[in-house]
Amino acid sequence: TDSERLTPPLHLTDSLLAAAIEAYGACGKIDIAQYLIQSNLGDNMSPADWLPSYHEAVKSLFAQGQSDDAMALFRSVLAVTRSPTFFCGAAQNLKASGNWREVIELYRLALTSGCLSKELCMLAMEAVAASGRIGQNKRQFPLLRSIIGEIAKLSGVSPSEWLEHNYWSLRKVLGYSLS
Fold first, then answer.
1. Is residue 21 a contact partner of residue 36, using CB atoms and an 8 Å limit?
2. Residue 122: how many CB atoms within 10 A of its CB?
C-alpha cells in the first residue's frame, strides 16, 4: 500500500509533517494522511511542540467526516496548549460540516481561554444566525451584542463604532439588521 512506502524512518519536523498531512488530504489520499497522523503523533509527541501537525490532523479528521474524533483530538491539544489559530481552524471545520451549535460552544471556550480572534467572533455570529432561531427568538440578540462587544475590544474601538464600521459586512453574514 501507499502507507507502507512511508515506513522508512524519516526525521520529520513539525512543518514537514503538517505539510505532508495537508498535501495527502488535499490529494484525496486520506488513508496516507491518517497513517502519518497515527504513526507520528503518538503519546510521546507533545502537542505544544507539534501544533501545526495537530492542526492538520484535526482538519484531516473533519475532512473524513470524523467530527467526534476531530473534536476529541482538539480537546486533548487544548489540555496542553491554546492558540487562537487552532480555535479558528476548528471553528471553520465545524462550520463546513454545519455544526453551528458547536461553533458557538467553541467561541465560548475560546472566550474563557483568552483565545479569541476577530475571525472566530465573526464565525460565532454567523453560527448564531445560521442556528435558525434568529427572528423567532429575541434571546439571540444579547448573544450577538456580546460577541460584538468582544470583537470591538479586540479591534480597540467601542461596540457602536465597530458596528457602524462593519454594518454591511455583518448584515451580509447575519442576513438581517441588528438595529
1. yes
2. 18
88-111 pLDDT, tens digit per residue, is 989 998 998 888 989 999 999 999
User: What tens digit of pLDDT does each residue of 58-88 get?
Assistant: 888 888 888 888 888 888 887 777 788 889 9
Extract the C-alpha cell encoding 24. 495527502
| 107: exposed, middle or buried (Cβ count in 10 Å: 0-12, 13-18, 19+) | buried
**Rg over CA atoms, the chain:** 19
Q: 33 and 25 in contact (C-beta within 8 Å)?
A: yes
The burial class, CB within 10 Å (0-12 / 13-18 / 19+), for 142 is: exposed
CA 68 to chain centre: 14
With CA atoms as reference, report the closest residue to 112 among 161, 159, 78, 70.
78
Ramachandran region, residue 141 (left: φ > 0; alpha: ψ -120 to 50; beta: rest)? alpha
What are the angstrom distances between the C-alpha of 49 and each of 13, 52, 59, 100, 158? 10, 9, 18, 30, 37
The cell for 173 is 453574514
- Per-residue cell: 162: 465597530
Residue 38 main-chain phi, psi, to 5 deg:
-65, -35
Asked whether the beta carbons of 60 and 25 are under 8 A apart, the reply is yes
Count of H-run helices and E-run strands, the chain: 9, 0
Between CA 64 and CA 139 the distance in angstroms is: 35
